[in-house]
Amino acid sequence: MKIERWRPFWHTPVWFLSLILVIGILPVHADENEAPAAPGRTMARQAIKGAEAWSTVDHAKLQALNKNFATGAEITDACLSCHSEADAQFRESIHWTWLANGDREKGKAGYSLNNFCLSTNKLADESCLACHPGWGTRREAINCLACHSRKTMNFEEAFEDYQAFSVETDDESIEIAKEIQVSIQAAAQDIGRPVRDNCGSCHFYGGGGDGVKHGDLDSSLAKPSKSLDVHMGVDGQNFDCVRCHTTVSHHIAGRVYTTPAASHRKSLVEDDLAAKITCESCHTATPHRDGSKVNDHTDKVACQTCHIPEFAREKPTKLSWDWSQAGKLKDGKPYKTKDEFGQYDYMSIKGSMEWAKQVRPEYHWFNGSIRSLTLKDEITPGETVPVSRPVGGREDINSRIYPFKIHRGVQPYDTKTNRLLAPLLSGADGYWTTLDWQRALSTGMKAVDLEYSGDFEFVESTYVFPITHMVAPGEKALSCNDCHVNTGSRLSTLTGFYMPGRDAANPVNSMGWLLVLGSVVGILVHGVGRFFTNGNKEK
Amino acid sequence: MANQMAHIYLYTRFERFGHWLQMLLILILLVTGLEVHGSFALMGYERAVSVHNFCGVAWLVLFAFLTFWVFTTGEWRQYAPTTKKMLDVIKYYGYGIFKGEPHPVPKRKHAKHNPLQRLTYLILAAALLPVQMITGLLYWGYNSWETLGLSSLSLTAVALVHLAGAFAVFSFIIVHVYMTTTGHTIFAHTRAMVTGYEYVEEGLEIEAWEKKGT
Fold this sequence. Notes:
The structure holds two protein chains of two kinds. Chain A is α+β, with helices and mostly antiparallel strands.
């Protein structure tokens, strides 16, 4: 009988073939770095082709703008002499009304509040009006230049000085008045679509200081690098705000109170006149390379979740504000202290505050709407009050996992009515002047015409900001392991669904490893048994 | 008598190829699967997912060929379960093997698996592996559940069944590999799976048609 001998396996063609097959399997993704650019990026590049803005008007040559302006309202009149509908359009917009579309109770000028400076007291607090686009703190004439002039100047001061000097008769005063007038006219003639500095003059400083409120919106975005914001980066796409915040009749696209920034997830491919306010408008819903697993995530995970790994990457943002600590005195006087960022972490007039940079967002299901409380809503004392919170849930098909900055506050509420309170802050009766809560609260609540019982306490609260700016370059986006991991998963707080990698700890897992361990112990015992009883074996 | 061994051709080329390729795929699937599950970090999550998906689909193709082969060659009979001598085999592995007793069911061309093997392989090939393939396919196609009308499925359920199956396969591999050492030498069975030839004790009738090439 022919006895086959052991032969090296590669002598058999079958083995050789299977080896090749195996080698074919392994390097399946070795070339992933050389894969063509993401189709979503190509789509977006197409969408902004020929983006250079152009105009048929040089405002410096217009007769209406080549005259002396003694007040801001005169400039507005000059603008409106050509732009006849602008005033009516703008007065309808939320930038002017500060009231939510639809629900007119909501809005800065309504009963809405937050956990920063709490409330505008229905605009009775004049310091808030520094950001209102009228002239100075007045709300009569609209201020076109706030958004449309490329020259930023303090018009309030300029007009005051001009009016003072122009009535004088001495040569020096005439000269100064002339100079002021030249700069006013220069501002009135250098007109265009809003640029980053226009929007930023208010939106970068929300909450009363640079980066206080949003965390993804501060003065670092005035001239950002590509690594801070891949769209706005001056060394990258160099987008202005209005590149995405597209406008119809002075109504600027963006999320406003209860209203989502976009009601439908539509790309320009589906609707070439759609607002460019969402990522998908330009990048589509499947922006990554074909067959890539990340494309399967876009139904449940917002682009921002992976592409904005941290916010406040260059300037610090405020993470908490405890009003209950306000009012302390040092040597009988109000005082301030600064933290490592040079920001005030204590002010007698405001309380204690925490700042942070490079902040990892918190993640929530979000359908684009925010539910915010007003001064009329009752709260549950003893529980953290969600002054604003994202609307959405896992079961809602319009909801996706979205990154948020959560601002934690401690703020006053009425212990009788169980409603949050709106103290007046600035002015002679304001808390910042008096450090007297009772006086500030009763004046503030009188201004909004709501009841105040006279009894107040402080309550913890949260306020949310969806994070959408400061999109990092692709290579800095999160990787699978930021979420699909046992410990330290960014999505560890989102429960009720199974996520591979994150949810490894479960009974099946424990029983499985027990089975594996049992098998190993079993064969060891059996094997050792065979080894020691081998002598019995007949040779 | 025990020294006189006959050499019989037990595993065809295709069977051996199928076996080892399947071994390789299952091993890769197990390792990458456990990485995706979160048991350890090895090649990186993203790569583990791609490799796992690729091997899973590759295995489906191979399994289709193996099944086709088993049925067209009539080899499926080798997997028909029987209780005959089952107890003897259990006794042998639990007791007799330590006393050097001969295996109660020596391998034969028309009966290359003992009753315990038949049952194990049948459960493996007809139940466990198909469950892994079905749950794996479902898991893989998670994003299409809605379009496929499967939205009532629970990912948790699918994932946990797939995980349980993986541990069962893991356990099988451990015991299976150990059992290969119980031949007349430690590597006898392994070598048989490579060369196709198995030594059996002489004296057992080996029919002419069972010999290779004759």
